[in-house]
Amino acid sequence: MSETWRNRLMLLIALAMAAIYLFPLYWMYITTLKSGSAMFATPPSFWPHDPQWSNYIYVWESRNLARYLGNSLVIATGSVALITVLGTGCAYVLARYRNGWIDAGLFLILMLQVLPASLMITPIFVGFSQLGLLDYPRLAVVLAIAAKSMPFFVVLVRATFMSVPIELEEAALVDGNSRAGAFLHIVLPLARNGILVSAILIFMQAFGEFVYSKSIIQAVEYQPASVGLNSFMGPNTNEWNSIMAFATIYVTPILAIFVLLQRRIVSGLTSGALK
Amino acid sequence: MKPLRKFAQSLTDGRGFDILLVAVPLAFLLALSGLPLVYNVLMSFQEVDMFSLGSVVRPFVGFANYTALFEQPETWPIFANTAIFVSASIAGQFLIGFGLALFFWVNFPGASWLRGLFLVSWVMPGLVVGAIWNWMLSGDFGVINFLLRESGIISGNIFWRSDPAYALWAVILANIWLGTSFNMILLSVGLSAIPADLYEAAELDGANLWQRFYTITLPMMRSSIGAVVSLGLIFTLQQFDLFAAITSGGPNNASNVAQYWAWDLSFKQYDFARGATISVIMILFVMLASVVYVRSTRQEVRG
Q1: Would residue B206 be called left, alpha or beta, if left means φ above 0 and alpha means ψ between -120 and 50 degrees?
Q2: Among residues 52-81 of chain A, which lie with CB inside 8 Å of chain B?
Q3: Chain A: residue nearest B185 by CA?
Q4: Is A93 on the interface with B (CB under 8 A)?
Q5: What are the C-alpha distances in Å from A36 to residues A55, B33, B303?
Q6: How confident is the model over A11-60, as pLDDT tens digits?
Q7: Minimal CA–CA distance to A27: which of A43, A40, A46?
Q8: For the whole model, what pTM was predicted?
Q9: Does position B84 have pLDDT exceeding 90, yes or no?
Q10: Which of A274, A158, A208, A233 has its CA nearest to residue B124?
Q11: How remote is the C-alpha of B85 from its chain's centroid?
Q12: Candidates 3.40.640.10, 1.10.3720.10, 1.10.260.30, 1.10.10.10; CATH matching B69-302
């Protein structure tokens, strides 16, 4: 078998596997276009013969999706801002030196990275309520998410800083820059891409965050889309086309960002998780 | 003024600069992760109710919360569920992920792009993944039941979410789907780090495909596999959204696991002390797993 035929065959199998793997996503999109009766038809149809685009408009308006997505955006943006500002410098120092203190710091960061949110929420909730932070529910969620996700960000960005040659920084110091100047003008611009990719990953995580928002935010006008989707799914619901439309509107921006930046996100992720 | 200026200069151009950059985030993390951790342990030794929620000083009860926890009839079944959930999820994610990684390792045009595409399952919000699987696993109209019926695997519908025998497996299925791609990507990285000349040499010596797999691939992948499996353990113990979206731990705790139960006790039954007690036990487990993770990636951590 020639090389090209082998390649084509492999590609074909790979496409088939991707199609099977991504079927749940397809099923989400297709359900949004079905009417109430088409949804419960047996056998189910695998192609929308009579697409009901109005499902989207109905869900957008009846579930007040703009407000939910706005809250998700506020929470995700706040978390990413806080994490980037605090985490970048930390990652830089952890990448630049090599001694017992740094090892201890790294170990601490790795340990904090693994704490499950659903287990940490009990003390966080009680503590926040004693501090009065629950009166600012979105801020409280941003703080909780920042504490949860910053270690992951630090691990990813540290890997980026490790790839910036230290000689460049030393040259800048010889040229009369202060440490802060060399960091801001030489090191940061060189690490910009890695920081950006890590921030996007954190943003996607925070945009979908559920445990903290569900537990801390009681008032519906401050709840993000994940909590909205959860309360839309009652135990005996049959509005699956609307629920899937909700999920579609929620997840499609994330998927679009991911597909566009796929190569960078994947390489950023792998450099951090194993190094 | 001189010491002040010296101090300011150290912050921009000396030791102080590094210390500042590290100290602020570490203080933040200690305040928002470290303190809650300690507070959690404290609460697990206290009697906490709605009236004492506002004060830190509460009646000390020793190990009463722990002994009461293990006298509850549902405790052991839920811990057993947790063990099943974790081991089945990791096994599924790892085996499928490794298989896919091996397949995509054979380089062909488009391989890396397609491989990356799989990762969408991992970047989606857990609630959305849960909603999709909830709908696909629905008893009467779910597409999974339809496909299983058509292929002759089952004759009657399986009520995935409400049948106690299947509820936990419904969540496991969704979790395997969610985590497989992440396993695959990390294992791919490990595979691509194996030097190709090892295989060329083995081929010259007449080793067949299986022999090459057992004598080269598996041993060379040992630290990657260790890292992926312990990361899998950490991630599955963090899994909460799928339970909230698919079964809510029901029916009658048949699909309940420790990390969901801890939340349920605190926020549905307002028994914060009990919730804290389970959290302490589970966090100890997770920390043990992460020590294994750190050890298996230690070469890289130390550079």
Answers
A1: left
A2: none
A3: A270
A4: yes
A5: 10, 46, 58
A6: 999 999 999 999 999 999 999 998 888 888 878 888 888 888 988 999 99
A7: A46
A8: 0.91
A9: yes
A10: A208
A11: 11
A12: 1.10.3720.10
Task: Band the pLDDT of A101: cuts 50, 70, 90.
Answer: confident
CB contact (8 A) between residue A114 and residue B48 = no
Which runs of E-coded beta strand occur in B94-151?
Answer: none
User: How many Å apart are CA B104 and CA B121, to the nearest integer?
Assistant: 17
CATH code assigned to A65-273: 1.10.3720.10
CA distance A66 to chain B (A): 17
Exposure string over B37-58, b if 16+ CB within 10 A, otherwise e? bebbebbbbbebeeeeeeeeeb
CATH 1.10.3720.10, chain A: domain bounds: 65-273
Q: Residue A40: how many CA atoms within 13 Å on its side-chain side? A: 8
Answer yes or no: are the C-beta atoms of B274 and B265 closer than 8 Å: yes
**Distance between CA B16 and CA B221 in Å, rounded?**
42
| A-interface mutation test, from B13, B24, B33, most A Cβ less than 10 A away | B33
Contacts of A64 (CB under 8 A, 6+ apart): A228
Top residue of A47, A115, A148, A177 to mutate, by most chain B CBs within 10 Å, is A115
Distance CA A88, CA B253 (A): 43
- Return the domain boundaries, chain B: 69-302
For residue B46, the cross-strand partners are B60
